[in-house]
Amino acid sequence: MGGRRIGVDVGGTFTDVTLSLDGKLVTAKVPSTEDQSEGVIAGIEKACAEAGIDPETVSEFSHAMTVSVNALLEEDGAKTALVTTEGFRDVLEIGRQDRPSLYDLSAEKPTPLVPRRRRFEVSERTTTDGIEQSVDEDEVRAIAAQLHEMDVESVAVSLLHAYAHPENETRVADILRDELDVPVSASHEVLAEFREYERTSTTVVDAYVRPAIDHYISHLTDRARELGVPQPRIMQANGGITDADTVRRNAVTTVLSGPAAGVVGAGSMAADDSDEHDGLVTFDMGGTSSDVSLVRDGEAERTTAGVINERPIKTPMVDVETVGAGGGSIAWVDAGGALRIGPRSAGANPGPACYGKGGTEPTVTDANLVLGYIGASTSLGGELSLDEDAAYDALADLADEAGLDGPREAARGVYRVANANMTRAIRSVTVERGYDPRKFGLAAFGGAGPMHAAAIADSLDIDRVVIPRASGVLSAYGLLAADEKRDAVRTYQRPLDAVDPQDVDTVYDELAEELLAEVSDREAATVRCSADLRYAGQSFELTVDIDRPFDTANARERFATAHETAYGYRADESVELVNCRVTTTVERSAPPVEYAAEGDPQKESREAVFGAEVRETPVYERARLPPRERIDGPAVIEGDESTIVVPPAWNVRVRDDGTLTAEVSET
């Protein structure tokens, strides 16, 4: 795993780059571009130039992007059709017959990604026991002719119970692939799991984003080849990387590509060395949004119940809670006179008012400038200077609208509201899931995360904040540290007391063999088995690790423990096995990173606002802080990619690897 490795993560505002070579870590930021590949190539060229190397000498290129999630959020994906079993044409609209907001009479469900006129039925019938009515191939060809006339760009196929018996669905997909020159996503290939609504929704999402992913990766691969860089390996939502061709076939796996890389990077670089903590809450605040997750026992928490833009996606993914509060999030006043933040963002262009690119609306970044946490001399991303007057003007307008006493008071309000939004997100991944946030450290990264971390930790009684060395580009670093991962699932629904352990082991063996046939290094791959279990009568499951050979008593006890953690009790009820899951992993070692510091770390001092006080605050250059140095707050520590704010009651210590640990000072 030596050589020159580069990782590039595309965000809403900046594209982040990390380059590892000879024990050094070179980082770079460039503005994100409408065609994301342009920013990616510009970032690679910038990092290689700073390192003094030719891009052709890069041995590995890992990448995380926002193409698929942007297509979902902006609803500008492919013109998609759905082929399903007769009688199930409207499953996308019926869903679970629940309301987005129970007591909101005006609440509306999202518009289906496939309108009714592009949803087609086939006369077939499959049950959990087998095929009762085979597919009429002429009927499928007639549907293909209609799809051709409609100029569809992709097709999703989701037949009833295809997860158990995929023969009919396989035949439909094969005919459509022969007749049409568009990608076809089949549900048993995307998600071999029961529940027709979630399986259909996930398959439709895969089809909806697949043309965009295929076009983007092809375009990026061509650009990389021209630059002399290897074909990119792509970060998946499950926290692992895979080859580009696999992603083209399974586009839905990229929906949380960037946030997953950040969590992996936090687990690798920001590991909490304290025995007093159960793990880390990861807090990634970028230009557009903030992402929160958990790392326990060195591994990112995962889920199979993801929702993007109110649409369920059941593929395994890092369990990330996202709120629309980033550095570029716009502050505004609602009809009731309350100050609000986001979800609308100034993005990269024009960006916050202080960027001097024509933006006039107040953002979180403008508030941080007015509060003194960043200064006019601060260079965001190593190259973007700031317009202090423009920030004050934007906050002055907000103060007038909100009835506040001037720009600083408005900035304090923006800072507090943004922190409150992010605090709620942290509670949702800790308290609401049975974890005490006080028993975790907080790993802060992203361009804006370390500016807000200590204040957020204070509100949650978290006593330690870890700021990794590459905190401003940690998602890009996570790409260098991520393992290769592949997942498979199969529904195997039985009462736990009635299953034959040998039959369950056979299912696990078959799933493992499917994945091992695709990994890059079969001999190096490890296999991890898990199961979705529930009490009889429950609607949803909990996933627990399973030992081999399968043992029912051990599985029951692990489920009871997980249920007690999540819901506060264990029941004396029968337990059901629902799904068998397998994950294969080929481990990759994180690149070694050396740290050395030279020169006087203090750059200047400036006024900064803490609470109701204005304090003269020293400003330090992070790259010059020597190992084991302690700095007492108030202080501001600036780096090329991010800025750390140390409140008066906190102190910061420098680890040997350059990671900063902030703690509440002893009184």
Automatic annotation (TrEMBL):
Residues 199-485 form the Hydantoinase A/oxoprolinase domain. InterPro entries: ACX-like_C (IPR049517), ATPase_NBD (IPR043129), Hydant_A_N (IPR008040), Hydantoinase_A (IPR002821), Oxoprolinase-like (IPR045079). One of its GO terms (biological process) is glutathione metabolic process. Residues 506-654 form the Acetophenone carboxylase-like C-terminal domain. One of its GO terms (molecular function) is 5-oxoprolinase (ATP-hydrolyzing) activity. Coiled coil: none annotated. Pfam families: Hydant_A_C, Hydant_A_N, Hydantoinase_A. One of its GO terms (cellular component) is cytosol. Residues 5-179 form the Hydantoinase/oxoprolinase N-terminal domain. This is N-methylhydaintoinase A.
